Amino acid sequence: MKKLLIVNADDYGQATGINIGIIESHLRGIVTSTTIMAGGHALNDGLARLKDAPNLSLGCHLVLIGEKPVAKASQIPSLLNSKGQFPQTLTDFMWLMTVRQVKYLDIVTELRAQLDKLLNLGLTISHCDSHKHSHAHPKVLDAVIQVAEEYKIRYVRNPFERSKIKQLQQMFGKYPGLDISKKYLLSRMLDYYHYIFLKRMSKTNICYPDYFQGFIATGSLTPELMPKLLAQISDGVSELMCHPARLDEDLNRTQTRLKQSREGELAAVTSEQAFSAIKSESIELTSFRQLANETF
Question: Which fold, 3-295?
Answer without folding.
Answer: TIM Barrel (3.20.20)
